[in-house]
Amino acid sequence: MAKTTPNHTQAVSGWAALDSSGKITPYIFNRRENGVNDVTIKILYCGICHTDLHYAKNDWGITMYPVIPGHEITGIVVEVGSNVSNFKTGDKVGVGCMSASCLQCESCKNSEENYCDKVQFTYNGVFWDGSITYGGYSKMLVADYRFVVAVPDNLPMDRAAPLLCAGVTVFCPMKDNNLIGSPRQNIGVIGLGGLGHLAIKFAKTFGHHVTVISTSLSKEKEAKTKLGADDFIVSSNAQQMKSRNRTLDFILDTISANHSLGPYLELLKIKGTFVIVGAPDKPMDLPSFPLIFGKRTVKGSMIGSIKETQEMIDICGKYNIMCDIEIVTPDKINEAYERIEKNDIKYRFVIDIAGQSSKL
């Protein structure tokens, strides 16, 4: 399988992992010329997702080296193809996790291309021309316009970048479970990280009562005073957990570490819904009794379609929802990876690719 095609003639500076050590180093590679359905984007910022670490170290055994991570990309359009009518040079745009899909299956036709069997990702995927995709840890990206979204003018590009993955990941379960425009409900968010803090912001914007569930008591103050959560439960405190049994309508689980769902399911009311968006690398314990005796539902969810991603970021523009970030320069990516592994970040690292002002 070719990593590039003869059409890949544009030399680009980027940052790649070359082997399973996961160390990110400067790397020069080629991107394709701008085609009729493409937009060329000068990348300004790229968020660091925990998925990037897994791919860099080949934790899932599917990495094609060299791998250039990055699927939380914001930048400026500098060239458009002849078939592109919804973008023009100078537009603020974003690219998330997807670069291509079959466009023909039921999922694609229903604007659910993120569930297409042939979906290809922004990096470590295979594009339509047979080339391997390279992500946003780079100066420039050529993307099919059907997988690009417009970024609202009022959103700063650095704080908007993580919305392309983390934001849509927590937005879609709320939309799917009718939490937008619905009467006030009691929402639980497990985990206060990159996903969790955005989930709180969305849920509060939608008018719901929000309870944060965390292993760390030290996070209670920031959850309530900084993010506006209404309640806080220390999950390791059995008494606290029991006192909140059957109080929540909906729980969003953002934890990527292995854990049992049983104690959390007991927090749900009868017919309550539990949605998993974290991705532990081992099977989670799911006892049957909390399901049977509560008529509860456990579901999974992943990112969102391009249509949903555009809807999400438009809502962020309308209500001024942004990710809380820490900016790093490309030479500090490895240090950022080390800190992510230690959970030493509030709440998302964003790489300043172009050295631009955060006011963009």
Automatic annotation (TrEMBL):
Keywords on record: Metal-binding, Oxidoreductase, Zinc
SUPFAM superfamilies according to UniProt: GroES-like, NAD(P)-binding Rossmann-fold domains
Gene Ontology MF terms in the entry: oxidoreductase activity, acting on the CH-OH group of donors, NAD or NADP as acceptor; zinc ion binding
Cofactor or coenzyme needed: Zn(2+)
Domain named Enoyl reductase (ER): residues: 16-351
Family: Belongs to the zinc-containing alcohol dehydrogenase family.
Entry protein name: Enoyl reductase (ER) domain-containing protein
